[in-house]
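Recap quiz, item 2
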Amino acid sequence: MSAMTSVQRLTLAKGLNQGLRKAMEDDPKVVLMGEDVGKLGGVFRITEGLQKDFGEDRVIDTPLAESGIVGTAVGLALRGYRPVVEIQFDGFIYPAFDQIVSQVAKLHARSLGHLKLPMVIRVPFGGGIGAVEHHSESNEAYFAHTAGLRVVAVSDPADAYWMIQQAIRSDDPVMFYEPKRRYHERAEVELDEAAEAPLPLHRARVTREGTDVTLLAYGPTVKTCLQAAEAAAAEGKSLEVVDLRSLSPLDLDTITTSVKKTGRAVTVHEAATFLGMGAELAALVQRECFHHLEAPVLRVGGYNIPYPPSRFEEEFLPGLDRVLDAVDESLAY
Amino acid sequence: MTATATVRTQEGLSADKLRDAYRMMRTIREFEERLHTEFATGEIPGFVHLYAGEEASATGVCTHLDERDTIASTHRGHGHCIAKGVDVKGMMAEIYGKATGTCHGKGGSMHIADLAKGMLGANGIVGGGPPLICGTALAAKIQGTGGVSVAFFGDGASNQGTTLEAMNLASVWNLPAIFVAENNGYAESTASTWSVAADDIADRASGFGMPGVIVDGFDFFAVHEAAGEAIARARAGGGPTLIEVKFTRYFGHFEGDQQTYRADEVARAREELDCLKRFRARVTETGELSADDLDAIDAEIGQLVEESVVEAKAAPLPTEADLLTDVYINY
Ligand SMILES: Cc1ncc(C[n+]2csc(CCOP(=O)(O)OP(=O)(O)O)c2C)c(N)n1
Ligand SMILES: [Mg+2]
């Protein structure tokens, strides 16, 4: 089969790198910008080799100035470019928070829908790499809470490759979350759209089918949930894992179809549970699936504290045990 | 000890003061060199950014400060902490993530703070510090304490909006604030010759209506003199100053940095420009301090840092329950 040749084994990081390369080849208006993204190829090497191949006008090194960088991307987008901004680490996005919330998110509505703002802000997020405060945060809910932004999170190399291209093709601003502790995980990626059409950007995926409890996860915790499902299967429990992929808009259809089937749901993310994505999911699921629920929707997540020192991240991050405890609690209800 | 307290240099530094300054710089160097070695063993958690090579800046400035004064620091903050008097053993334990650390092991290298010492904190956010000193300086001004506040920040941070806002605020309010731009040539891999849109960071001072000076950051005496002038002016109500200190950092941006972006400029700096070597050469030439004096300090500091590592390694970790403290409420 000819399609076989288009399958490559890639890390999530390489999937992003190849996806960015493909997007740049396909559309000369795609430009990348950020601190150390050019010559260095980014601190996580996601943009490695791209400045060499596409030049300094398309892979733009910037001074250290997140607010200015994001504002510049807005201007570029208004002039027909498709800028992709790299924020070095999750916690460094806050200097740009004003530009994102007050400018990026507002222009489409302010112009009564006339202005398109095709830009992507890439955010390596979450913990698990031995880093500390400001370098391990999960701030997706701030942006999902903000009208006017699309927010997605990838969990594996194939999605990394395709979703970055879809995000870049979107005419609306997309906050693009990358689970940095999964950057080096590998999987087979079908690079040929004709061989296997990628799922649309804002659709959730049932990554593992099951019948007893639905686990709702995204980004780094998808793998945690798949491991939990594996462990639970050994005890005769059948868990379904839904990778949300899109946090705003949410693919409620896929979510509610799953929960109506299992009657139980547990949300799993690294961000603090208090006012995190799980809170919204719980509210929506209880409304949409009220008569199907066998137990309250339970939430597993980080504690409501600053990200702890790295020696304690294993205690902070929702791991197998905390997910399985919640599953048991749900089943016992 | 041959030198006496009555011997003075042209800047008016007594032998005791010179010894203190040398001890401070040596402590920072020893601390950082040791961390460089220890980090390689994998025992130190988190990210570590070393200040080696830049000692004359923190020392030249902080030797003028007292308990009325505050400083704000950066991700490369160990030198500033030591210079402002934060306990070396507490710092080492903090960097090892131990309960005996300055912040009970909950901060780590990038978040050491000691308010009792007027040390507002190392800072994981580039450009996070400068605005803070506007507040402490304003408080000092209102209360008439004569205190000054100093923000240390890098060439990279000099391009961050917060830094520029802070300089303007300080000037508008005529604050006793000193902005020390530590230009070590790079922000991670980005060269300051490219990223700073002026020949020198100090050039920006005039745009904010304050004096700007450039000093050789390898020369303790140059930093000390420039800082002394600026701090005296600030204490007397003369407002803020921007001091640009130029030098080279001896290690990578962080421990583990491959440093592909710079040719080796470090070997020459260590050989010909090093602040400790120059200090030693000068004070022994003038006879203000003897080589024995300085050797004794080296030995004393070697011992202190050795003890700090041994004690840090042996100290207990914080507990899991400690994580949930010091926040307002737990959900
Ligand atoms: C707001 C923010 N953006 C980016 C970073 C990542 N970062 C950490 S240090 C650094 C370079 C800082 O350079 P400089 O200010 O010159 O200080 P130096 O490291 O040279 O001491 C960068 C980009 C950060 N910590 N905070
Ligand atoms: Mg620098």
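Chain B has eleven helices and seven strands.
Residues 1-10 of chain B have pLDDT under 50 and may be disordered.
End of item.
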